[in-house]
Amino acid sequence: MSREPIIRVKDLHYSFREGEGMKEVLHGVSADFYPGEIVIIMGPSGSGKTTFLKLLGGLRTVQKGSIEIDGQLLEKGRKKDLVSVRRKIGFIFQNHHLIASLSVCQNVMMPLSFNPRETAATARPQALDILKQVGLADHVNKKPSQLSGGQKQRVAIARALVHNPRIVLADEPTASLDGKTGREVVDHIQRLAKQSGATILLVTHDSRILDVADRLIELEDGVLNSDPPIEG
Ligand SMILES: Nc1ncnc2c1ncn2[C@@H]1O[C@H](COP(=O)(O)OP(=O)(O)OP(=O)(O)O)[C@@H](O)[C@H]1O
């Protein structure tokens, strides 16, 4: 594993407006994440895990401290940089955000459509290939509403990984799934990410999937505690 971090976070603070004032939820988080590693971020509800992932993905603006992704600083007001950083990232969220009016295959083609070098003719075979890898070859023309929860989550994984992102940010990807389906979903994320060498940051409360992690970190009250021991 390369020792040059792909994500560097330094003294990151973040506050939400609350009534007349501000409530700080991240109190100076610093961490480095390396190419190819799977890191699980745990922590009590409300400790700031989702806020942290959204900041890393450029979905919230850095207020204080810094985030550097692949050598590029995420800064306020630099929209062009944000767009290029987001292209390096795949997002997997708990409620998958699939587009209901599009087919499974069209949903997975979406991230490729932002690349001017891709056309429908080049994107479709890539989408079909990754859908096959997550076991959905027979469902490519269906609408998301025709799929089970686990199948929808596998579509979300395929969509997050189809453009070979350097980084995958996954927020509770197994939360709405039963134990067996959750396990399968995580195994897919792990296998596809290891094939491509992507860095995975995965927020979860699900203790059954901790073994996929190369490293566990804990956010507690907006502060990061690194590397608690893996139990069991
Ligand atoms: N849009 C918002 N406006 C105001 N406060 C918010 C907003 N989003 C989150 N918060 C607050 O920030 C804190 C951190 O929230 P966050 O969702 O990051 O926590 P979390 O660790 O992901 O929680 P959970 O495990 O329950 O998903 C919480 O106190 C939450 O109420």
UniProtKB/TrEMBL annotation:
A GO molecular-function annotation: ATP hydrolysis activity
Q: Does the keyword Transmembrane apply?
A: no
Q: Its family?
A: Belongs to the ABC transporter superfamily. Macrolide exporter (TC 3.A.1.122) family.
PROSITE patterns in the cross-refs? ABC_TRANSPORTER_1 (PS00211), ABC_TRANSPORTER_2 (PS50893)
Arranged from A to Z, the UniProt key words for this protein are: ATP-binding, Nucleotide-binding, Transport
Species of provenance: Ruficoccus amylovorans
- Protein name per the record: ATP-binding cassette domain-containing protein
Q: SUPFAM superfamilies from the entry?
A: P-loop containing nucleoside triphosphate hydrolases
Q: Which domain of life is it from?
A: Bacteria
Q: Does the keyword Nucleus apply?
A: no
ABC transporter domain location: 7-232
**Alphabetized PANTHER family for the sequence:** ABC TRANSPORTER, IMPORT ATP-BINDING PROTEIN
Against Pfam families, the record matches this protein to:
ABC_tran
Provide the Gene Ontology terms for cellular component.
membrane protein complex; plasma membrane
